[in-house]
Design a protein that fits this description.
- This is Sulfotransferase domain-containing protein.
- With about 475 residues, this protein is of the alpha/beta class.
- Helix 13 runs parallel beside helix 16.
- The longest helix is centred in the first third of the chain and has 36 residues.
- The structure holds 3'-phosphate-adenosine-5'-phosphate sulfate.
- The site of 3'-phosphate-adenosine-5'-phosphate sulfate has 21 residues, from helix 7, helix 10, helix 14 and strand 16.
Length: about 475
């Protein structure tokens, strides 16, 4: 009995020792496994980490993930990417590690969730970036991006996705031992921007001692959709006192729930004495927007571009028709008296159709005037913006209280599609608006239908003219 009880006591001790050894070995295996799977040399800050999507499935055709010195960079000059197909970045690669970066090792991070736009459209998923110069420390690089597939949609949405896409560009080093490549926005005083009138604008940055920061807009182009809002923004952002994001943020209407931090992050960096302007034409017709804008900044300056509502409706129709098959404009706009297929000059105008409803300027403006004084709203004549852009811009500059800058020589008239002005940059290059989404050919609309629409809009236009104390030469019969 004594022998048996001693033996069982020893067994318990051995049992305990074996358990401790096994647990320790298990923990060691897990720890080694974790350390070896972690990508060596990757330095990704917490703030960047949150923008990472779920881990990418490994693709054996690519360089293994653990060899990637992948760093997502946040501060690409996004505004630049909207209207040209190049994006300037600054690299921080030590000279001795200098290497040529080509589309072989620079790839877009397709398919990952992005902070703003969700899924990347298939059409641009395979787009490649390219640095066009030998890499040097601090070199100002230009990544060329094929924007062709991005121009399918009208301004805004796809372009915005494209720029988000670029935010998630990854650099893949091809050697295990190379340094992390930090790609940051160029410092303000080295910034050379497309779209600005060159030297003048750079001087504004260089003379300032303050750090550039992302600032919320002080000016909104609130509408009207299809009245020339993009042209106004493009012309305005050439001014040295103006900064703007290229895409439409849609903050006060559909993205309000995302909060001010989200909104501010969309803004480009600017100096304290510059004004940030954004344009989202949907603001003008969204009932909840005026109060929201006022809540943010009761001193917000508002720009409203207007155009003959009949032509505007046709332009709106063209945009919709470019995306999906829809009935002819005449049938969409006017309900026939006797037959649904023969619209006539006596039929009911379909005022509920958004293309018609947006043109009821007085109705929409009334909502804004409940919240903002008329003095804070400047109305831009969309037709004059085409015929005489410098003079229209001069009035905007005066309203915004920024130095007079825009001159006739900044424009080349009737250059785009033989009708529209284009911007002349300081280097002499000419910048026109998006070829596919602007200046679409309008369908021929019968005179009787046009007359019916003009009759319909007449009282609304007059009310609008009374509200703003100014008239426009829109035909009323
Ligand atoms: N410089 C220049 N270049 C090209 N187009 C110009 C320009 N200035 C004004 N426009 C007119 O702008 C119309 C499009 O208006 P928006 O930019 O407000 O459209 S959008 O709401 O942003 O989709 C567009 O309408 P459509 O011609 O019907 O396409 C143009 O008439």
């Amino acid at each position: 009995m004594l022998v048996l009880s001693r033996l069982s006591g020893r067994c318990r001790v051995w049992h305990k020792i074996v358990r401790v050894v096994m647990v320790s070995a298990g923990l060691a295996v897990i720890l080694i496994g974790f350390l070896s799977s972690y990508p060596s040399g990757v330095r990704v800050s917490q703030s960047l980490e949150k923008y990472r999507g779920p881990a990418e499935p490994r693709d054996p055709a690519r360089i293994p993930w653990r060899h990637n010195r992948a760093l997502q960079f946040m501060d690409v000059d996004r505004a630049n990417s909207q209207d040209s197909d190049s994006i300037r970045i600054k690299t921080d690669l030590p000279q001795q590690k200098s290497k040529t970066i080509s589309d072989r090792n620079l790839e877009f991070n397709g398919g990952r969730p992005t902070p703003y736009a969700g899924e990347i459209p298939d059409s641009i998923r395979e787009t490649k970036g390219n640095l066009n110069r030998q890499d040097q420390r601090g070199a100002d690089h230009v990544i060329k991006i094929d924007t062709q597939p991005m121009t399918e949609d009208y301004d805004g949405s796809l372009k915005q996705e494209a720029s988000n896409y670029v935010r998630n560009l990854r650099y893949t080093a091809d050697s295990k031992n190379s340094d992390v490549l930090n790609i940051n926005k160029p410092k303000a005083n080295n910034l050379t921007r497309h779209g600005k009138h060159g030297a003048h604008h750079e001087r504004a940055w260089r003379n300032s001692t303050e750090k550039p920061a992302r600032r919320l807009p002080k000016v909104l182009i609130i509408g009207v959709k299809k009245a020339g809002t993009r042209a106004l923004l493009e012309f305005l952002r050439a001014h040295p006192s103006i900064e703007s994001p290229g895409p439409e943020p849609h903050f006060f209407d559909r993205n309000y729930h995302r909060g001010l931090h989200w909104y501010r992050e969309l803004m480009p960096r600017s100096q304290a004495d510059q004004l940030t302007v954004e344009k989202t034409p949907a603001y003008f017709v969204s009932p909840e927007v005026p109060q929201r804008v006022h809540d943010l900044d009761p001193g917000m300056k508002l720009l409203l571009v207007v155009r003959d509502p009949v032509t505007r409706a046709i332009s709106d129709y063209c945009q919709a028709a470019s995306k999906r098959r829809i009935q002819p404009f005449e049938q969409m706009a006017v309900a026939a008296d006797d037959s649904p297929f023969t619209p006539s000059d006596t039929g009911q105008v379909r005022a509920n159709w958004s293309a018609i409803r947006i043109g009821l300027y007085a109705q929409h403006l009334a909502r804004w005037l409940r919240v903002f004084p008329l003095g804070q709203i400047h109305v831009v004549d969309g037709q004059s913006l085409i015929d005489n852009p410098a003079s229209e811009l001069a009035q905007v500059e005066q309203f915004l209280g920024i130095p007079a800058f825009t001159k006739d020589s900044h424009f080349r008239l009737r250059t785009f599609k033989g009708k529209f002005p284009c911007l002349v940059r300081s280097d002499g290059s000419v910048h026109c608006l998006n070829n596919r989404s602007k200046g679409r050919e309008h369908p021929v609309v019968r005179e009787s239908v046009l007359r019916r629409l003009r009759q319909f809009y007449k009282p609304h236009n007059e009310r609008f003219f009374n509200m703003i104390g100014r008239t426009f030469e829109w035909k009323s019969s």
